[in-house]
Amino acid sequence: GKTTLFKILTGELEPDEGSVKWGVSTIRSYLPKDNSEYFDGNEMELVDWLRQYSAKKDDVYLRGFLGRMLFSNEDVFKPVNVLSGGEKVRCMFSRMMLFKSNVLILDRPTNHLDLESITAVNNGLSEFKGNLLFATHDLEILETAANRIIEITEDGCFDRSGTYEEYAEWRRENVGGTLTI
After folding, report:
1. pLDDT tens digits for 156-179?
2. Is 44 helix (H, G, I), strand (E, B) or coil?
């Protein structure tokens, strides 16, 4: 499925056939659907958790990334093993921002998020200047962040530039069937 494809694209899994080759200037970040390996059994405070991924170690710098993902004041001192699912996703976005990536691979990025966080993610992704590869069941993110739709089905791959709404209309007219998110 989608998660397997993303794991192949990120090098976590080998493809059954063929190969994956990225351009030399590509800097990728991956938001997995299951991020438990980053948090389970870890009692670090949030700011220290983020520090381990950063070349710059000062608190002000790190708190800036956490603040963009709606963590404020004392939130940054919470142990990461007590964070909610949505807070963990927001931590992962903070981590991804550190890397200054030009390709984001997002496996269901708005799962576990509350409305305020979903809005923040959608706003951030719509302003992102790089490439996004994402799988989602969230119509809002499709409408705000997608400008090309690649749908992989049992009947083949459909690849169209344009908005999700334009893709859905094209698909109804040319392929038929219903489109589910």
Report:
1. 899 999 999 999 999 989 888 777
2. coil
pLDDT tens-digit profile of 63-119? Answer: 999 998 889 889 999 999 999 988 999 899 999 999 999 999 999 999 888 888 888
Question: Which of helix, strand or coil describes residue 29?
Answer: strand
Query: How many folded domains does the chain comprise?
Result: 2
Helix or strand or coil: residue 157? strand
120 and 40, same structural domain? Answer: yes
Give the contacts of 108 (CB within 8 A, at least 6 positions apart): 33, 134, 135, 136, 137
Q: Are 130 and 176 part of one and the same domain?
A: no
Q: Amino acid letter at 79?
A: P
| Euclidean distance between CA atoms 9 and 28, whole angstroms | 10
| Tokens coding 147 | 């400008």
Domain limits at 175? 147-181
The verdict on 74 and 109 lying in the same domain is yes
